[in-house]
Amino acid sequence: MLAASYRDCQAWRAEGLPLSTSSNEACKLYDAILTQYVKWRNDETLGGFEGCISAIQAADPNFVMGHVISTGLELVATTSSTRLDERLAGAVKQTVELANSQDISPRERLHVKAMELFSHGNFPKACDVWEDILVDHPTDLLALKFSHDAYFYMGAQTPMRDSVARVLPYWKPHMPLSSCLKGLYSFGLLETRFYDQAEKVAMEGLALTPDDAWSVHSVAHVCEMKAEVDKGLKFMEGREKDWQVSDVLASHNYWHWALYFIEKVKIIMSFVFKRCKASGSMLDTVDASSMLCRLEMEGVCVKDRWQELLQVTQPHTDDHVTLFNDLHFLMVSLGAKESRTSQRLLEGLQELAKEPGENQQHQLAGTVGVPMCQAMMEYNQGNYNQAVELLYPLRYRMVDIGGSDAQRDLFNQLLIHAAMKSENKHHQKLGRCLLVERDAVRPNSPLTHRLMQRARALHD
C-alpha cells in the first residue's frame, strides 16, 4: 500500500481535479508518478517510475489518466519516436480509444487530446490545449509541467514563464508540491533574462524544499549567464547532497557544475559520462555530447570519448523527435568520424522537412535545423568560411531549436570559432564583434577573455 500522503479518489475530488476511476490505489499511484516527475526523482521505495507505471496499470487497466501520465512521460522524454516505435504509437492509440469509450471529464478529455497532439510533433497546439486546461484548473500540475517541458523544446521562453505566472495566485502553501512551482517560475524568469528575480524565486523554493533540484538548476543557470563562476562553484558544491538525490536531473546539474570548471579550464567529466551511459536519458546524452564539443573547442583531446558516446546516440539517428536532439547526435557522429551516420541524419531530416505535416520540429527543419546541421558538417571539414555563412544568418533563430540559453550557447561558440578560423577577413572582424557583444552580456567571463586573446593572437 502507498503512503497516506498520496491522494486517493476523494482527495483529488476535494481539490477540484476528480479522476475517472474508482480505484484509490490508482489515484495514489497517479500522484506518486506525478510527484516523481516534478521532483526529477525515481523514488526507489515505490519502485521508481517503472514500478509505479506497472502498478497503476494493474490497479485499473482502464484508468485514462493513468495512461495519459505513463505514455505522456515517455513522449516528453523524447527517447523514441512514434514514427518508428510501434509500441509507443500503439500506447497513444490505446489511450485515445479508451477515452472515447468512457464517460470521462472534459479536463481529462483535453489531456488525451494534448498528449495525442504532442505525439504527432504538434507541440504548439498541445501547449494550447494544456493552457486551456489551466484556465479552468490552474492547479492541474500535470498540464503545467507537460506544457513547461514542451515550451522548453520549442525555445518558447516567454510562454514558459507566463504559463507559471498565470497560475501562481491559485496555489496555496498547503497544496502538495506547491513549493515546486518556484523552480518552474524561476526557470522561466531566467530564460527571459530576469536573472536577479529568478535567483530570488529559486532561493525561496529552496528555503521551503532544500532538495528541489529544479530550483538548484535555476540558480546554476543564473550564475552561468552572469559569469559568476566562483559563486556557482560554491553553490553547487555546498548543495550537492541535496540535489544529488534527484537522479533524473543530477547528471544535468553536474554538467552545469562542469561548465564552471571549463570556465577555469579544469575538467569534470566522470559524473556526466557515467550517468549518460547508465541512464540512456536524453538529457544526459545531449549534455555529454555538448560537454565533449566544448572541451574539444578548448583544445582538449576527447576522440576516444566520441566513440563511446556514439554507441548511445547512433540508435537514435532516425528518430528526429526534436531538432535539439538531432544537432547533438550529429555532434557525436562528426566527432567520432562516422560520416555515414552524419550523412544519414542530415538526409533523413531533409526528407522530413519536405512534407512536415503538423510536426512543428519538422516544419522548422528546412529553415533552421538542416542549415545548422550543414554548418556543423562544414566546420568539421575545416570549411570555416562556409560554416559562418550558414550559421550567422540563423543566430537569432537558434532559440527555436529549444533547450536553454546555456545549452544553446554552444552554437554561439561554434560560430565564433568558425569566424576566428575563417580565412575571410570580414569573418575575422565579425568574430571579434561577436566576442565584444558576448562580453557586454556576460562581463568577466574567463571563456570570453580567452577567446579574445586567441583572436588577437591569430590575426594581429
TrEMBL record:
Under InterPro entries, the record lists: TPR-like_helical_dom_sf, TTC38
Q: Which domain of life is it from?
A: Eukaryota
Keywords from UniProt, A to Z, are: Repeat, TPR repeat
Similarity annotation: Belongs to the TTC38 family.
Identification of the protein by name: Tetratricopeptide repeat protein 38
Organism for this UniProt entry: Amphiprion ocellaris (Clown anemonefish)
